[in-house]
Amino acid sequence: MKQEQMTGSQILLETLMAEGVDTIFGYPGGSIMPVYDKLYDYKDKLRHILVRHEQGAIHAAQGYARTKGFPGTVIVTSGPGATNVLTGVADAMVDSTPVVVIAGQVSSTLLGTDAFQETDLIGMTNPITKWSYQIRKTEDIAWAVSRAYFIASTGRPGPVVLDFTKDAQVGKAEFKYEKCNFIRSYISKPVVDESKIDEAVKMLDASVRPFVVYGQGILQSGAEKELAALLEKGDIPAGSTLLGLSALASDNPHFKGMLGMHGSIASNVMSQQADLILAVGMRFDDRVTGKLDTYCKDAKVIHIDIDPSELGKNVPVDLGIVADAKDALSRIVAKMARKDRKAWLNSDKHCNEVELQKVIIPETKGTADTINPGEVVATVAEVCGQDAIILTDVGQNQMLGARYSRFKRSRSFISSGGLGTMGFGIPATIGAKVAAPDRKVCLFVGDGGFQMTIQELGTIMQEQLGVKLVLLNNNWLGNVRQWQELFFKERYSATRMINPDFEKIAQAYGIERVLVEKREDLRPAVERMFADDKPFILDVHITEANMVFPMVPPGKPVSDIMLNAKEWYK
Amino acid sequence: MEKEKHYIITAYTENQVGLLSTVAGLFTRRSINIDALRVFPSGIPGVHKFVVKTTTSEVKVRSIILNLEKKVDVIKAFCYVDNEDFNKELKDVSDYIKEREALCK
Ligand SMILES: Cc1ncc(C[n+]2csc(CCOP(=O)(O)OP(=O)(O)O)c2C)c(N)n1
Ligand SMILES: [Mg+2]
Question: ipTM score here?
Fold first, then answer.
């Protein structure tokens, strides 16, 4: 029986549905109009969220993907539509976020002629995608799209770009869908070398002061339980990267805090004291290691990652294991010895006491006239019962959001890590709320980052998404200001901002906004914010010259920790 | 600075448009000069072979090899010092592909 012919646009949408896609973040235009036309018939099956700028679409897709653990989907037009997503594609590449971008392209007959809105998207995305492919034939669509989802979501996840020519969209072919689950040139799940597991177990059992450093790989492989079991069985302390946060509950006794530049004193100091570092699903970013040749010098290093190119890239390893984190950890847990290392596990009392007195109390229990950003984050954590999905933008708001948020559930912290993209926050929050409509979703964002993707308030309005946007408003590009104060002789070049009247902006979008300037108004306002599931902007005027501490200054060992502008940790 | 040496890097790839710039881009990004480059059918049906001559450090070569193999359409990559015979891996690659394909079934 001969199957019915479909247009390329319909084949695309059918394939998306077969892959399990339920939501598309997008923006139409000339070279993708046939797809948008077909989407009209699929309104009930595929939710399309119309953003206000394509950068918003890709960041929303990232927020969606990181909440759900399923690739986010973006559809945009060619030329400017496609170039507008590039920042988010690069962001997804460094943060290993599974997203599939489908961009319109001029007809294949016009390729290379500088046709209207033609850009060399494949050329531009090659270095910032896990895979990019130009679909020029209708017959290729189902194959390419299924392959895209397989590649984006397996192995070390990442962004895939499909450059979809207009003639392929309008051409006709039979719909022949076959789910992709194998590519001969690509290893989606490495086979674990059991002898290396044995070696790791041996090293771990022999270690007196082991320390685990983990990252987003734990969340992505779903290894939260295995990680907790390993720490419990061996009495082992652990520190998290920014992106690994929420993999362990904040009150887990083995959790010593975030690693690196603005991490906890305990996790930085313990990683320097350890005799064995077990790194899992992380990549030793310079924000984590500080000055590389002083990092963990006396420790043996075991590094487990699904990406072979990460092993030994920054930190030399004694044992590298290419594996899915869950797979490797469950094997190690089964074989390792139960050990009492309580003395080591609890050796961070001094670190914590110093951090509490010198950093945490001054930041979160302010007494000055103005409110500190840390007070806001801590109040949100209290009021929302540690159960919200917390997102941040980039800057001081990000580091404070990461430091003072508390988590009970996994996949509850989303931030732009490797690229540090200001403007990530608002759209990523949209994506997270779409992916988890039943959860509280709350963003910490600076006045700078807020204005980078402020137009997405329109999307929030149109979709009536109950996102809670907490604007930590200091009238500065605070993070840069901090560096200028500390390292550039207080020369505040281009960091002061005159801000708009956010009340009028909120009003224009029909979003409730509450201004908080006094400490006594903070908690009631936060309670008001979480009282319903409607969009909300909490505009808190915070201490302008506030700085984030502790801080490992760039280029210093992670044990060189500033407690404030004058004191160092001893 | 690490000592630089002459290396020959080979990569076996699927026959996909755009791979040349992917491969070249890995070198550019690490500011490694390509002394010579050849791309041709490998002898294994449907598989292309890249041969790149370059002068660089061992650390960078290692990084290139791992990142070549990380590309979805690259099957295997190898590295040789100077005048070693860089064709001897052909049989290994062919066996490897058979092994991989057997997994599919
Ligand atoms: C797109 C982009 N441009 C520039 C930067 C550099 N940068 C990092 S933090 C920061 C200041 C952020 O200011 P704001 O959003 O007000 O947050 P705050 O630090 O004050 O909390 C800047 C300019 C960046 N990370 N991303
Ligand atoms: Mg600011």
Answer: 0.93
